[in-house]
Amino acid sequence: DEVDIVLPLPPSIPREDLDRILKDDPPVKVQLGRQLDVLGTAQLAVCDCGAPSLEAAYAGVPLIAVYNSPLFCVEKLWRRPGFMSLPNVLAGRQVVPEYCLGEMGSGRLAGEIESLLDDETRRQAMAADLGSVIESLGPPGALTRMAGAILELAGRGRT
After folding, report:
1. Which of 131, 119, 66, 69 is nearest to 97 (CA)?
2. Of these four, 27, 33, 61, 144, which has the most CB atoms within 10 Å of its CB?
3. What stretch of H or E contains 129?
4. 27 and 51, same domain (yes or no)
5. Residue 39, in any domain of the structure
6. DSSP 3-state assignment of 14?
7. Is the pLDDT of residue 43 over 50?
8. Average of pLDDT values for 81-88?
9. So what's the pLDDT on residue 13?
10. Which pLDDT score is estimated for 159?
11. Are residues 114 and 95 located together in one domain of the fold?
């Protein structure tokens, strides 16, 4: 099966810079606009473990959370229960897989992507769990409460 890779382009990144970076990679469709528009058409997202992972959860899209900072990789070892992605932190358990790219490499990440794309049951279960995470944030106004939850977690530091 063919996979379409779609990348939402935030206004802060000049298109020329992105074109230079992507020139030798597989075909990537760059879509100008809001990330939620792109997520609304996705079967699976690969995103940063911070706010983008929560945006994917809000859109109901199964995801793989990644972080590339060596500091995050070290911090994950010290953090209890050890979660870095916001959906997992808010759930208090692993809802989505999360990986440090430095330990994983692109080949293993591609394998995890393929595995999830081939397993609709797993994606549906993940989407349901993500829905529960978003539901736990409460009724309308959840974005404000989400920001409060993030600030509260940030204020706690390591536990």
Report:
1. 66
2. 61
3. helix 120-136
4. no
5. no
6. coil
7. yes
8. 83
9. 79
10. 46
11. yes
